[in-house]
Amino acid sequence: xxxxxxxxxxxxxxxxxxxxxxxxxxxxxxxxxxxxxxxxxxxxxxxxxxxxxxxxxxxxxxxxxxxxxxxxxxxxxxxxxxxxxxxxxxxxxxxxxxxxxxxxxxxxxxxxxxxxxxxxxxxxxxxxxxxxxxxxxxxxxxxxxxxxxxxxxxxxxxxxxxxxxxxxxxxxxxxxxxxxxxxxxxxxxxxxxxxxxxxxxxxxxxxxxxxxxxxxxxxxxxxxxxxxxxxxxxxxxxxxxxxxxxxxxxxxxxxxxxxxxxxxxxxxxxxxxxxxxxxxxxxxxxxx
Length: 288
Hints:
Elements: H1 2-19, E1 27-32, H2 36-47, E2 53-56, E3 68-71, E4 74-77, E5 82-84, H3 92-100, E6 104-106, H4 125-148, H5 157-163, H6 171-185, E7 203-206, E8 227-228, E9 233-238, E10 243-247, E11 252-260, H7 264-268, E12 273-275, H8 280-285
Parallel strand pairs: 1-2, 1-11, 2-8, 9-12
Antiparallel strand pairs: 3-4, 5-7, 6-7, 9-10, 10-11
Helix pairs in contact: 4-6
């Protein structure tokens, strides 16, 4: 019996020893996410002489929401596809596009044909001009309110449009509203925040087969070995002096600092456990 007890203790000790994961070599900085934000942060650190860092990416590729897929013997973008405010000469993305000689086409949203559910043309040039005037005034109003925080603090875009004399009360008017507000902000005018609106500027559509991510590949050409893919983060434990990050594989990475580039949606979903929880003011900011 004594021998069996010793064997049991030994088996238990071995199980605990081999089941536990010790932290990897401690780094100065961990960057969580290899999308544009993460890669840009890594590039900035590297250029400032901070080279003791790692980038952890949960997907099998760099780029985050910027990625391509094959379709009809071509490559199409599954995420970001446009450069906004491309009419500004100092736009850094335009400078990168020119540097990498990417093929692109200016977007012309004023040329369109509208058809109804029977296939008949329903384009209304007069109504489109009326909408364009109301939309431009709405965006200017939103930009001014956002800068000056004019009371009441905020209101939906629908309220702003009504103040400007526009009501989306017909299918055609709703379509025009959708083409600018839903398309740009991802929600309808009833939900869109007026104070967060602003003039969109010109757009340029990147159709280069090398993909939108070609804008950023040079960013990490000096440190490709510092980016680890397939590292899905499940837990972040942080304190005043260190951070420990645990992955789905049970690997623990430790550092003095961590920069989390996860979207608000990921953090709100609780896919990643934070220890301790975020303070209330940060949690509240997700919904504002």
